[in-house]
Fold this protein.
Amino acid sequence: MRSQPYIRIPFRSGCKLSSKAIVDTLIGELTARNLPSGSRLPPLRVVAHQLHVSKNTVAMAYTELAARGMISPDGTRGYFIARQPTVATDRDTYDVPSIRMLDAPPERLKSAGSLRQPLIDIGNVFIDRELLPLERIGQCFRSVLKQPGLHYMYDTQGHRPLREIIAARLTKRGLHAKSEWVITTTGSQQGLDVCTRALEKKSLATENPSYGIAKRLFEMNGLRTTGLPINPFEGIDLGLWEKQVTRARASAIYLTTNFQNPTGYSYSSSELHGIIDICRRLNVGIIEDDWGSDMLPYSEYRTPLRALAGSHVVYLNSFTKKLLPSLRTGYVLADDKSLPILLDAKRTGTLGTPTLIEATLFEFIDRGYYDQHLKELQRELDIRYQNCLRLLAALMPETVRWAKPGGGPVLWLELPKAIDLQRLRDRLLKKGVSINLDTENWFFGRPHLHGIRIGFAFLPPHRMQKGVEILAHAVRQEIGGAL
Amino acid sequence: MRSQPYIRIPFRSGCKLSSKAIVDTLIGELTARNLPSGSRLPPLRVVAHQLHVSKNTVAMAYTELAARGMISPDGTRGYFIARQPTVATDRDTYDVPSIRMLDAPPERLKSAGSLRQPLIDIGNVFIDRELLPLERIGQCFRSVLKQPGLHYMYDTQGHRPLREIIAARLTKRGLHAKSEWVITTTGSQQGLDVCTRALEKKSLATENPSYGIAKRLFEMNGLRTTGLPINPFEGIDLGLWEKQVTRARASAIYLTTNFQNPTGYSYSSSELHGIIDICRRLNVGIIEDDWGSDMLPYSEYRTPLRALAGSHVVYLNSFTKKLLPSLRTGYVLADDKSLPILLDAKRTGTLGTPTLIEATLFEFIDRGYYDQHLKELQRELDIRYQNCLRLLAALMPETVRWAKPGGGPVLWLELPKAIDLQRLRDRLLKKGVSINLDTENWFFGRPHLHGIRIGFAFLPPHRMQKGVEILAHAVRQEIGGAL
């Protein structure tokens, strides 16, 4: 039996090629389609002799090419050039139809993760990375990597030690919590996704204006959503809210009671009690997003709805902004009744979240780093908040108003109606300043506010000063132009 | 002006307490409600003198308690016991109603993450942790932590270097791919969630039996789903599939063409082409889950549907099982048309995924560790597969059949109809063996198969042998009992 003739490979002759170089040569030839598919490759000894290398070196190269599916072994008959998979292109006539999908929003929502440096971004809700404990988080990662090392498996509900320490912290703050009720999530965004997917009746009420990506989530998850107006200067009209919730037959209400985004508004104690009354009367459940309560000046401690209104309130929180956005870790606090279905919603959405991150976060909290960080952070947030108020008072024309949220990372700046906000934005972009203006995505229906969100935790003082100066100047120009 | 009298704290007297011990004592007293709210705490100098510590030590303790919201500073008047937030209990009469949510599935789906040791789990789809490159993944984490350190922000679409290297790998395999089309996901589960939430028409067809958590996902996301029968012994009846897809007016079809779960079935080339024909004729799009294609013996390389049927095929893959389940990283390959809405669905679901994990995975692939690992893994998977076939042939009674998938981590074991599968499971549990039996969650309607999934990649050889021996014995007993 004569064996099949083999093709010659144009190696750079005489060279003592490494296994990797052999692989690269062959990939080059195959990609250029110089070698007909189905042809036999030279036997190991032939190539070894040609290149003055060991047979083993050639064997390693052939094995790698086989792993890549570019050549195939055929028993003792040697290696053959594999049939090249057809490279499908967009013009391929064999295309199956595309899947009919929802329309993306007209202007794609800005990625929360987009940092538009070197613009002076005076609307950013995130906290300056200089204020975040990167070094200590890194220490905790290294420590976790040393311990049991990498955890092989994840717990769908979340790493147990992290759930336990979260429950203990919440208990100290007066919430009825236990680790069996905690579900970790990919930021509070997944917490909200999980809640809305688990709703039986797809109708919800929430604040108007609302965080744009939450609004879009409700839309994608098929919810009818009613906006309940928030006015950061006047507070909440509870009578109006009750009428709207009634008319909408909302089955749940989603609220951010501290530092609501984008208004920066925090609910008063009597508003919290009024809302509880409404929900009891109308048989409406509450989803509470408490992201801001770790950023309250100490004397301002407020009791969350979860503590005031009982354990049926589904409570969301997150470590993302306060610790490090890229960690993407938040949690839901459920109760016996809501746990199984919320857990099911997390399972079907992502199965689980990375254990290493959760173990590191546990380490960080357990060492006391988190409480210490929050204290230090708060000192700096308070300074930045006061600085922002001082700048606005000194620089803004009289017809401009702003809310004084008392803390947090954002406040609402209300501008004269005569100002065209889009034009203001464009004017500012030319001056190197970016503002947060997302009117379309924030409001349900016709906006009852006319302004922008100011983020005062993101920029260091000199950048903030520069930004507010340019903003104030542009506002004055726009007012002048509008007159 | 006389200052308000202060309460005495029952410190263990004479002791030189640390700041932490002071905090703990006060927390104990406050939790026990021994200290009336509103009362004044002793001034710093009093406690310092009492405990023989510096005023600074006491000040640190008070600051921490204030941070916890348990005491409040009041200007120069000192610190006061805060009003304790009401601890809501389940019996709290002030409860708001619970939110009406979907029912959880009757028997909660087994968490994919549950490892039921020390049972011999012969149905597990995961790969033995001993075969996974934990040491090298740890190296890559350490290296990433040293580099730019922790990334502050995430990219909603996924860490760019990872997207680029994924696109390059796919291109080498004959797919038309670019990094702008790659979206990273929390395992392929999020990939599937993203696709189904983005569907315009909520109707889907998929294999029957199907992976239970995928089926449940479709249900939660409001899809009408049609099951297309797979028979791992006979293959696919394309005529029947066409009829069913037509009748269901499915707008998309979700397929796992290699090592389908739970049957282990891989589609033949003519089946792939037949399916493409059906989808073109009926105007149905394809979602392809290619999780298994990195676990094919080299000679078995198969072209994915994405390469055969063009870039409209939405392609899912994952590193989870092959690398480390707890990393939770997969990806979607979209095209220009589907990208914006799929990205929108990821954004609304989780905003982003942890950058550190993605940067580490990039490092792992870029160093060549991934390809090397896949080769080593494949050698061992092939051995375990052959070993499993050998054990079944040696031990099973003649009336039992099993599919020979050619590789992967699972195969289907078909049992005589007379055997009560639940009873078999219970019998095996008593013998320390756990099987994967999820008939209710796998099948649409009445099951056309009567068997269990065998996972041969999870157990080391001696455990597998023990497990199959016990299984074979139990099956013989059940057959004997049924006669």
